[in-house]
Amino acid sequence: MAKIGVLGAGTWGIALARMLCLNGHEVTVWSAVQKELDGLSKRNMHPNLNGVKIPDKIRYTGEIELACKEKDLIMFSVASPYVRSTAAKASQFITPEQVIVDVAKGIEADTLMTMSAIISDELQKAAPNKEFRIVALSGPTHAEEVARDLPTAIVSSSKDESAAKYVQEIFMNTCMRVYTNSDMLGVELCGALKNIIALAAGVSSGLGFGDNAKAALITRGMTEITRLGLAMGCNEETFLGLAGIGDLIVTATSMHSRNNRCGYRIGQGISVEQAVHEVGMVVEGINAIPAAIKLARKYRVEMPIVEMANAVVTNKITPKDAVNQLMTRRKKAETI
Predict the structure, then answer these.
(1) Taking the alpha carbons of 118, 182, 155, 178 in that order, is the dihedral positive or negative?
(2) What is the value of pTM for the model shown?
(3) Distance CA 149, CA 233 (A)
(4) Which of these, 102, 37, 96, lies nearest to 72 by C-alpha position?
């Protein structure tokens, strides 16, 4: 049995906390929002995981120290904009012996750091010259399905092979199959950028376009992500795997996906702000766009779908005109 601290009480964090508890581990969940903690502890249910019973063995706390101290593994499951501030709060209670797992997906716009790099940055501010064991856990994983024990596969990625295998051992069960992958940057890049393509796929559906358009967006979107990843030194196989095309397929095709749902409503003609409000949760695709644009320009990589998504969410172009611009781009070969 491992002692596990979960930082963040959103749907993904709670779905994994539930699974880890059922795996036989001791789980403590921290949230900065007392209302979340009160609801979870009183009802053993999450408002966005309808009908899912959460084990009453899970402990809840508003004190981050209690979720970090004397834990074997600490999981960051806050939304990407809050990873740095959460890591800063937790840093004084985390030691190099612990394994840190990040399940948030995103890239910080100002620094272009991945989530694991942000966590490492904050931990090293508190403990200079120390090495921390950080793992990125990513793949095609809707919280709504994991919480119902439906078959799922995911990738545990780290520069520290022993840490990746430890996470594989802790998380794996008959419903969750965990693979390891040493290409941490590639895994995290896929996790962040696929949300933008999923947003675009939702816009396409909202405009009334069909499966042909969605398949084209998914395929060409993956080409853009891969092109950038290779320019950044990542492994091509990562983009063909669960963290790459696997995660993109599930995020771009399912109405469980908040990015897909948000894009759908934008395509139907409502404002970006209203679409985000209707989703009621963080839409990571919108958060990821500024960093994606900067990375594309830094590495001189052509990413037309990402560029058009940016133009739509910043109200520089209508969704319909964005599609027209993509469809009338200069002629080219598919493999270039």
Answers:
(1) negative
(2) 0.95
(3) 36
(4) 96
Q: What is the 3-state secondary structure (H, E, C) of 222-251?
A: HHHHHHHHHHCCCCHHHHCCHHHHHHHHHH
What is the C-alpha separation between 165 and 179, in angstroms, rounded?
Answer: 9
What region does 24 belong to: left with phi over 0, alpha with psi -120 to 50, or beta?
left
Q: Which two tokens stand for residue 225?
A: 């992500």
Mean pLDDT value across the chain = 96
If one counts every other C-beta atom within 10 angstroms of the C-beta of residue 298, the result is: 12
Separation between Cα atoms, residue 209 and residue 58, nearest integer Å: 44
Q: Is residue 202 within 8 Å of residue 310, measured between CB atoms?
A: no
| Residues forming the active site | 194
Amino acid at site 119 = I
Q: Give kind and range of the element (H or E) at residue 21.
A: helix 11-22
pLDDT tier for residue 336 given thresholds of 50, 70 and 90? low
Sign of dihedral through CA atoms 304, 309, 315, 318? Answer: positive
Task: Identify whether the C-beta of residue 108 lies closer than 8 Å to the C-beta of residue 100.
Answer: no
Buried/exposed 266-277: b ≥16 CB within 10 Å, e otherwise: bbeeeebeebbe
Give the residue among 54, 35, 157 at the shortest CA–CA distance from 103. 157
| CA 80 – CA 326 distance, rounded (Å) | 29
Amino acid, res. 144: E
Task: Note the pLDDT tens digit of each residue in 200-224.
Answer: 999 999 999 999 999 999 999 999 9
Nearest-angstrom CA–CA distance, 122 and 125: 5
